[in-house]
Pyridoxal phosphate-dependent protein
Amino acid sequence: MLICSSRDEMKRREAALRFIAALLNQEGRSSLYDLSGLAGGFPVKKSDLNLLETYSGPAIFSSNLQKEGTQHLGGEKVAAFNRTSAAILATLLALVKPGEEVIHYLPELPSHPSIPRSVKLQGASYREFDNLQDFQLTDETSLVIITGSTMDHKVLPLTDFNRIIQISHAKQIPVMVDDASGARIRTVIYDQPRALDMGADLVVTSTDKLMDGPRAGLMAGNSSLIDRIQDKAHQFGLEAQPPIVAGIVRALENFKPQRILDSLERRDKLHKIAGNVFKGVEKTPTGFMISAANLENEITPEGNDNLTKRELATLMAMVLLREHHMVTIPAVGMPGVSDTIRLDISSKDAERVDDNQIIQALKESLEVVREI
Amino acid sequence: MLICSSRDEMKRREAALRFIAALLNQEGRSSLYDLSGLAGGFPVKKSDLNLLETYSGPAIFSSNLQKEGTQHLGGEKVAAFNRTSAAILATLLALVKPGEEVIHYLPELPSHPSIPRSVKLQGASYREFDNLQDFQLTDETSLVIITGSTMDHKVLPLTDFNRIIQISHAKQIPVMVDDASGARIRTVIYDQPRALDMGADLVVTSTDKLMDGPRAGLMAGNSSLIDRIQDKAHQFGLEAQPPIVAGIVRALENFKPQRILDSLERRDKLHKIAGNVFKGVEKTPTGFMISAANLENEITPEGNDNLTKRELATLMAMVLLREHHMVTIPAVGMPGVSDTIRLDISSKDAERVDDNQIIQALKESLEVVREI
């Protein structure tokens, strides 16, 4: 066992970041390929820099944020948060009282931990569902949350979406959609409507997922709800600061759905070739992935006593980083992060690496892990 | 009554920001003088811009943050948060359990609301003191917080500081110092030691107060405590994001205590002249201020039925902004902000405005408010 605690995982992350720092210092940004799909970006203009102060920043960028944000998500008003998790915490503090109940509906259980964790902090109760048969509100329910698309990019069917909103509104319960990646995956790839256009009261998205903005949360919806949530955010220091708001505005201005659509053909081709190298490769909406279980099956089909499947995935991700300069989540993510190796073909850096390079990197990394 | 609710205050803030936006667009940044002492800044280099991504950013800037941060605050390790309020929330979540007690000692009651608010959210109890006679720990106390310097820059005497740390450590209770502005006011102006050098376990400071960094919280102290607090921060989305971390690093690199010391002579001179215009002017560590009560006394010594003292201060701050392009807190602050008009002579923009301009602005603004 190499990974025994979240402390070991923190060391793994720190080692990965040290390697990236050395690489960037020696060979520059173009030597690195961040295919994690979570690279984030900070596309502010050089001329923006001297305006990113506490009062000048919002003065200049908040009206642009309203314009670009409502254009992207719909709704009456938007607000920006330090992270999507921070937006969710602010929402629970504003809309749910201790003792009340939050119901969460998602494409597949379990939820991202940030939702039940914030509900618990507020002293409310929590239940989650992934099928309409079991879904039921009670008299204590004060908020319904829908996850539009999971971390592994599994998307909620439209019929479920509409039904949950209908049931909740029949009881006057507000609906918030956690559309972290969904606000783009659902709309651009699956041609679903925006969450607010389906009648949700609030939607929140992560501006680093399928777009090149900073890691941050952008929320839109009903004006008076947004005001109450923003008030809580200011109280606990959860709102995005001016430089981040400027980064979000510029990323929204630059956002091109067509770039995601253009990557789909390449994804299909790469998924097919990668499948010849290794049959446990699965397609995702924006690329392909190797789950830790499939990796274990491929490398030690008879099982092994030395390494867990998470350790194998971590090893593979570290080899991809060190030997091929390709960034994936199991190498750089926080402790407890997904152990799936996902290569995102819609990411900006994917444009700089050719198909052959990706396939060779996979093939050679598999060989290295096999030998270890 | 003009200000009846926090909604009215939000409208006041929005009007001020609209005015600033128009001014910046038409006449550029040099037409504005932010003397709030809370201007914040984002001194990243243009060459930093393409490194401010989710994984490249920390790879490059986290080791610099450790180096510059521990040099500024002392301690074994530092961590950066979206705001000082967010750092305090993360600390309470990590170190205090529901049902336990937090004791807060400060130069003057009452506390900034962020501390009791976060204690309440965690389900703990809270007591605050400003004198050693009343100060007492109980068996439930699990954290002691000391405020080094208040929002109005009132500083805690060293003897109190040492005594509180001694009493707390005798009972093995960790001490966190909220040194938002104190980490510079106390050390640079009052020649007090750094909080960690006095034996505190943790200290947090605001990187926009008496230095030109972004609005953010920088915490330093005992390594294992910092790790636990940082873990909670990541869970709820409270940590500073890479662009903000880069801004903090550059601001720490640029920080010159001498600039604050150099401003003191000018402060004394200005305070004296301003006192001739209007006797309710009080000296602060970095400039001078007019409290709302003193303003009311000056303008309507016989009292008035039309405007509260907060309204008078807001009006004065708005006139200073519109007619003289000088930013002070009662004009641009969030709802519930201090109604003291404070002019910070150590702030960067103070270098661009001469003494006469400041005194004339005060004189003329007082006249305008008097007429209204």
In short: The two ends of chain B are 14 Å apart (CA to CA). Chain B touches chain A through 73 residues (CB under 8 Å). Chain B has a mean pLDDT of 92.
